[in-house]
TrEMBL record:
InterPro entries cross-referenced by the UniProt entry: Rhs_assc_core, RHS_repeat, T6SS_VgrG/RHS, TEN-like_YD-shell, YD
Annotated keywords: Repeat, Signal
Protein name, as recorded: YD repeat protein
Signal peptide interval: 1-36
Amino acid sequence: MPMSTFYFKDLSMTVSFLRKAAVGIACAWLACSAQAGTISRTYTALGQVASVDGARTDVNDVTQYAYDAQGNLLTVTNALGQVYTLASFDSYGNPQSVTDPNGVVTTLSYTPQGWLASLTVDSSTTQYAYDEVGDLLQVTTADGNWVKYSYDDARRLIGVRNRLGESINYTLDPMGNRTAERTKDANGAVVHLQRRVFDELGRLIRVVGADDQTQRYSYDLNDNQSSDTTPRNHKTQQAFDALNRVSKIVDPLQGVTALGYNADDKVTKVVDPRGVTTLYTYDSLGNRISSKSPDGGTSTYAYDEANNLIRSTDARGVVTEYAYDALNRLTSKSYPATPALNIKFLYDQTADGNLGIGHLTGLQDSAGVLTYTYDAKGNLVRQYRSVGVNSGDYYETLNYGYDAARNLIQIGYPSNINLTYTRNSAAQVTGIKLAIGNKTATLASNISYQPFGPVNSLTWGNGILLSRTYDQDYQLTQQQVGNWQTTYRYDADSNIAETATSLWGAVQYEYDALGRLTQEQTNSLKKAYSFDATGNRTQRTTTSLTTSDATQTQSLTYASDSNRLTSVNGSTLPVDAAGNHTQINGRRFTYDSQGRLSEVYQANIYKIADYKYNALGQRIIKRDYVMGSQTLAGTTTYLYDPSGKLLGQTFYDGNGQKTSGQYWFWLDNMPLAQLTANFSTLGEVSSSKLIYLHVDHLNTPRLATDSSQALLWGWNSDAYGVRAPEEDVDGDGKATSIVLRFPGQIYDAQTQLNYNYHRDYNPDTGRYVQSDPIGLGGGLNTFGYVSANPLRWSDPRGLAPWDWNGRGNTGVCSYYEQRVCETTGDLSDYYKRAEDICKGEDRAVNSLLTVGIASAWIRGTTDLSESDIYNKIRAELISNDKNVSSNSGSNGVTGDMIDAYHNDVFRDVGIGPLFYGGNLWPQGIPPNPVPRSGQN
């Protein structure tokens, strides 16, 4: 797989991912997947698997299993000698105790029917209650919070209610399809509504919003979705080949995207509406071995016997080599041409009380060393790093505290700066306090939320009140920040048609049939945008409405055989073989072996800055130089939390002395405040200033106020981020510096670009200056920013726009077809249902996941888009199923194993196992297709 698709799942893994059936945990996690090599098994006298020797020949990858006389699994020992122990089995064979390699004991109890009744880890207990037929009625977490479920007479889920009295109610048709979802507040008033219409075959044909806006779907004779028509009547059509694979997509402007496949249903060719063609080749096992893109160049890949990527070569000829441990965890990335960039990944470290077995515990890279420490529940409790500044190392620590239910309640920043979160009975954050040494301040209080939804109101520490109003589609329609008001108006396709602010006036917006922003207009200025068939901006025309004939035009041209931007207003923009822009506006950029922007030069002569990145792709160090010389002017280091949010930047002078820093404090994905601190020669905070940040609907900062509610800073940009902030709004001669821009972006003065995690964004052209590291995974235009609709979408990772309604790639679901043929009985029936679920054809599961994903966004446990979440769930579920089937035999997978790895995956993606349907309905009881263990 391309290196950009690696996930560092161990950062968010819990100590024991068995949260329903301990038997399945060990089997699901400890074994490794392999297809290319030979897997050898041995068996006990009773026919149970005793050992599995994995596919690799370069390491000892043997997993061993031990059983008692009754056939209960007692221990699983992985290839590294780490042991899971199961004990105290009840009459159903359920373990009542599981001890992981860290020595952490999970205690489980069961009802007389054998259903899980409680689970205790480190004195924290989660309880489960059922009705008389085994339907889950209530889950109560260790903090006393609970969620209740209700069912109709056919045992179908029809309601969810939380501890605050808020509820989600489902209306079902006779086939069990959810025809309406109503979210209600504690008083029973409907605050969110969505309706669906199905045809006589149970196919979704209409989705109706709260204002009767209707999305329509049609199907061909093979039940393939052949068209999708938006409420504004913009139709996208799909054609399929004889094997029901999408062969052609015709967009509403008649742009055609064509796809080709090989005999294994792998995509081999994608031709975009401009005729730009991307080609892929694969080995006999389905591993991609080359990608040829006119935008990003040609890359090649090689794999080991276990299908681990071991070598990649990019379009510049840069080679990257990968190594793995016996559990197939990535341990190193090496760059033979530039060894200084080599990266090491460390696991299972246990020094100083770290319960780190099973976790990523350290990273070593050119930017420094980063270590992670975990507690008994698997919470990350300490993040410690060293960074090199001048010839010395500086150290920064982040400490995290949690309540009994694993909710975050404290963050300890460097320099004795601490955040404390207060939560209500439903575990929602209701207040945040800041402490600097022994001085405290309130950042936010009285925080409230829409039922199962976003923030509704809060009071900042300076007394300014935030009040938000939403429609029944949960679109923000009005925001009041103190005396400043903003209203939002939407078209039927949910594009923002107008914003009106009391401070800056009204702006109207227009869109084409593809949802691309084509015009924005104020009372004094109009900007019009034109695009080609693949979404490249070809022109921006700026017209003054107050001065006659005052028009400026930006003209952009592109290569005929790619989407690479070649010139702006006749000025050439060179690129390297991988599509990276190497010169913009008199600044020259160079890129390192990782493909990251590493140096910037002024006038092609003087270096003005260089950059280093860590193993997670985050910019960690910037060094800037005195103009016209190689004298170091200063160094900036950057600090991130585990989810990738920027928490701070620290400034050092040319001698390496720490002088000042800025820290940001967040409510989920909303930046609430910024602290600017000055440091003494001992590195302690000597003085500081706290300002409060006020954001728009995308969580982009637009205003900043001080403790007296005075307005200090404002950013009234156009839709793409053009226009510098006003840094001295109050006119006192003191500038306020805030570098945060669109979500995931910070302004960089040296490049004059917005650094956006994996890439760099140019607001002037509305596109990235590098091709997308995930290729076409982020869209047909690998340079485009959020599908040319920056008012609706954001891209916090610099990879792909957040797609709030995307179901992701369902092509991988063909795996389950193979499993249907390989298995028999109830297990075969399960895989058939799993295929439907994977394809998004199970309405109940879709609805449950929709709630779970929205909840995860609100809680800040994921910053992935909906389509990315679905893709990650599919990839990890399939990988885990391969693991357990290779260990247990094709027909030996049990329901407990299936439940165990589902729990792990749902935790990993940030949704949590509560939203895995197998935890709502018992095994083998509709709608749960998971077979009862022992009855396969």
